[in-house]
Write a structure and sequence with these properties.
Strands 2-1-3-4 form a 4-stranded mixed β-sheet. Helix 1 (11-27) links the parallel strand 1 and strand 2 (32-36). The protein is an alpha+beta fold. The mean pLDDT is 96. 37% of the residues lie in helices and 25% in strands. It is globular and about 30 Å long. It has helices at residues 11-27, 39-44, 68-72, and strands at 2-6, 32-36, 52-55, 58-62.
């Protein structure tokens, strides 16, 4: 599983990345968590407000800071 956190480095983006890592650890699954801060890549997903959460190439959330439980629900 590939999880991408879309954002340019704001506090919420960093927090979402940490929450995603926690969700992966809590779920006991193998997943690659990657931070994407290139604005062109973010816009290629059609995301206009960050942070964004992308799982296996599919945008799951934009503009919200999800907690680890909310992220696990997408697994």
């Amino acid at each position: 599983m590939k999880i991408e956190i879309l954002g340019t480095g704001c506090t919420k983006c960093k927090a979402l990345e940490e929450n995603a890592k926690k969700a992966v650890a809590d779920a006991g699954i193998f997943a690659q968590v990657e931070k994407v801060d290139d604005i062109e890549k973010i816009m290629a997903y059609g995301v206009m407000s960050t942070p964004g959460l992308v799982i296996n190439g599919e945008v799951k959330s934009t503009g919200k800071l999800l907690n680890s439980e909310e992220i696990k629900a997408f697994f």
